[in-house]
Design brief:
heterotetramer, A mainly alpha (371), B alpha+beta (222), C mainly alpha (177), D alpha+beta (376), A: 371 residues, 2 domains, 13 helices, 67% helix, globular, B: 222 residues, three-stranded antiparallel beta sheet
Amino acid sequence: MEALAISLVNAVPLLAGVPLWTVTLLLMVAVAAVILVFALTFEGVGSLVLRKVAGDIQARIGPNRVGPNGMLQFLADGVKLVLKEDIIPANADRLLFKLAPYFVFVGSFAAFVVVPFGVGLIAADLNIGIYYVMAVTSLVVIGVLLAGWASNNKWALLGGMRAAAQIVSYEIPVGMALIPAVLIAGSLSLQDIVRSQGGLLGIFGWNLFHNPFTFFSFFLYFTAAQAETNQTPFDLPEAESELVSGYNVEYSGIRFGLFFLAEFGDMFIVAALATACFLGGWNVPFFHVGTLPWIWGNLLSLGVFLTKAFAMVLIMMWVRWTLPRLRVDQLMRMSWKYLVPLTFVNLLGVSLWLLVFRGKGIPGMIASLFG
Amino acid sequence: MGLKAYLNDIVEAVVTTAKGMRITARYGVDPKEEVTLQYPEERWEIPKGYRGFLHNDIKTCTACNMCVKVCPIDCISLESVRGADKKMVLCSYDINIGRCMYCGLCVEVCPVNSLLHTSGYEMASVALGELILHFIAAEDAPEIKARVARQVAEAAVKAAAQAAAKAAEVPSSGTAEAAKVAEAAKAEAAKAPVVEPKAAMEEAPQAPVSEPTVAKEGEKKE
Amino acid sequence: MSGPADFIFYAAAAMTVGAAILVAILPNILYAAVALLFSFAGVAGLYVLLSADFLAATQILVYVGGILVLLLFAVFLSNRISDGKTTNPTHFRLPAAAICLVLFGVLSYAAVSTPYAVKKGVYLPTTADIGELLMTRYLLPFEVASVLLLAALIGAALLSRPDRAASVKGEMEEGKR
Amino acid sequence: MTIRTDALPTQEMTINMGPQHPSTHGVLRVILTTDGEVVTRAVPDMGYLHRGLEKIGERVTYAQYMPFTDRLDYLAAMNCNCAWAWTVEKLAKIEVPARAEYLRVIVCELNRISSHLIAFGSYTADMGAFTPFLYAIRERERVNDLFEMLCGNRLTYNYARVGGVSGDAPPGFLEKTKEFLDYFEPKLDEYNNLISYNKIFVHRLANVAVIPAEEAVAYGLTGPNLRGSGVPFDLRKDEPYSVYPKFDFKVCVGTGERGTLGDCFDRYMVRINEMRESVKIVRQAVAQIPDGPVRAKVPRLFKPPVGEAYFRSECPRGETGIYLISDGTVNPLRLKIRTGSFVTMNIFEKVTRGLMIADVVAVIGSFDIILPEIDR
């Protein structure tokens, strides 16, 4: 970021008099704004697509009244959420009730900062990238717990407790399933991980096809991450048919909107991490994006990345509209009895593979066989 | 739980999920599977025996009260007066369509098929009172009553005159009865309201025109 | 360090200390927990300023995502949550204050008297170094800590596991009823 | 599955589930006492939908009561209609034309299909899968179309009459019925692939709320809830009425294929299999239906002889028995209705003890209760 600021100061003579840190700060704010706009747009469009996909799968049409073919439904929803009365229950804990949605939203939104959208399109290429995502999303737990408690509603409380227990226990398999990608790249930075899957092997350069263990890792990650973001079949915290709506049952208006946005934000983060860690990120198959001019390279890689990520989001929606929901003890059992041991075994397998074959994957070995 | 069962569990979960997802995918991709009817624009074909809103053709209605009696929830109310020909004349016929449960019992019992189900099913109103269908406007009721009363009175006067004539013609047979009839007719005529609204006299839209003659014939038969 | 970094340092420090004070004095235990969250966040901010990014993320992940959640769970489970009032009773104010003052004195003496090897802050990735150290120099403490945690885990699992004999007995009693 | 928390006692919590709750299938209120997520006691509180249906029956005539039976179980109104008609006919010993009986059986079985579809759909929705619910609704619409064609209404049919049915099948009805059956039968396999044998779904249902056969009998369960416990009791076979003896079908019972006999999964599977049997019955009835009148001569002011009659028939939610005392006037002297759902609620408190909140939803769904039947 500072390098960018220096180049900006050099390029624009008008900024010469301004202290460097001010430029950097302004730049940071601008980038954050861009990310926020992207996140909000995705969340809006995502909600529309979710409903459209639901409609298609359920042999009906889905929203089609607002705008051409229902395209503007999300704007109508957004306006509705903003204009709705913001109700705070009489016996709720007012301060925590108001505070909780922000924790959830911040926790979800902060993760967008390290998503590698393109060759040079990343808000902050932290060298602890993946770890950072895991850390900030833990804010969501606190927000959900407080929301459940502050509502002074037993269903909300149960939902909050469920959510917290679920997110905490699924953090482990999620982390363990992502480590193979880290091991292969030798870095926690998401950009490094994406770069490690480049090269001229095309889609076989992806970590997904690196070795059998990474292949399973991807599915383990995807399953566990679905649970961590409370997607069906793991949507117990807001299980509509059991807990009415879970931790957000008492929320209305824009505060509910924040929970809603955070949910879609989490969905994208999961898809983006899966894309970056296993599906080659912004790498264009058989093509080195870095050779293109800055603008075109970035646009191309952005397109590729978003395509992959949205495909993942679609698959999540597809799963969501197919499967029933687990029970809370089964959910825990699934994490501790199935996902955690499997991810550990998988991790061991990947480590051994890397040790034995000196970091080379199956496609790499085949490629070297043919020279 | 052995390792085999453990792995079987996982495989089964994956396989059954994949099976389900194949089905949902098929529905998701195939646009022919959409069954939604875009209601206000598209409508479904209403079958012949559809039980929609009730409609009473008051021209044929004989005010027999069958529908009122059979209705389990008293949503039909009817008021009628006896006309000059001893037949009932409707002066109000209301169906509370907000209360009606479209069971069709009233239509079934209607002897002259004047009460029918229409194919209408859309109705919305902001006041409960609007849900009461008046087949005869409420303000027409006094008019009809007055008109019928007038006709009854006229018929009674005529009948009395005839009876008197008959009595005069044939004094030997049944004088007492004839006199009685004449008395009754006179009394009835006296009962009829003296002040009649002018509007009713001027126009009687649903007036059963041939009633007085029919009445005469009926009496002659005696 | 330039101006803004100093400002951020003081802001983070103030947040840490201020939130910590709030934790101590707030009567509502849940508010105290939220204040603790801000305190942890302040500490994480300080770590970031010290170029210890891995540590900062760990701070958030472990303390906010783990410890604090556990704390909240404990509060929820041990109090009459349906009453909607969870208070933090304040007893023994004077002795506590005295002990805290003594502790503060000791700590500040240690902080002032330690000869720190102050280097100019260079931003370098620390993750690899931490990993390397954990696997070489500090392998023994690391493993000891792991074994301790494992023991604690097994113990917790054992404690929360329902007594098999008791449950069978319970079922029989239920059958009698 | 029972979870014991004797070792770690915590404070119990009382939660109101309902009367407004998405998965109590109406306005049932369940007072849950829970220890965390484990239910220690679940007391159903009924009566929010009480309309005095039995008392109404003593104030209206025999013919007028027919629309009220629609409201007894609005998802299987045809079955209730026919039950009332059969009871009154038993009381007054009225001979019903054969065609009318066949039509009744056809509509009863079609309505059993549509009712079980709702049971299946709402159960999967309770379990978190929303898509099968809409598929079920889609199929049910077709049944409703058939009924609309037959009697003009889509939900409250009021089709049966004392002495027959309200009208003969319009031309094309039987063909359309066949068309529907051909369309519907493969869908059952699709449901099974989509959700019935889904691992998560099976795990949610298997071994939950097991009702042993003797207990089910002792508590007076009937219908699919009884058959789910493995008791092959079906009034259509065991106490045949109408023209049921002429059809070849089998009584579906729970087999405990995925867990213990008598668990939620068995009750669920019985309904799925019963739909298949109903398809079979309707096929045979459509093939055999004779020509002729559809209504016996019954005086308009119908006065049955003094006496009493009890008639029970197999409704989708169990046995619906109607007890009728006539004093020779146009109104029944006393009317008592025994419904499957109400009796089923007796065992609710017993089977939900020690389950989790999510299981309570599963139990309510597996009983396939309907509130108008419970409260009447």
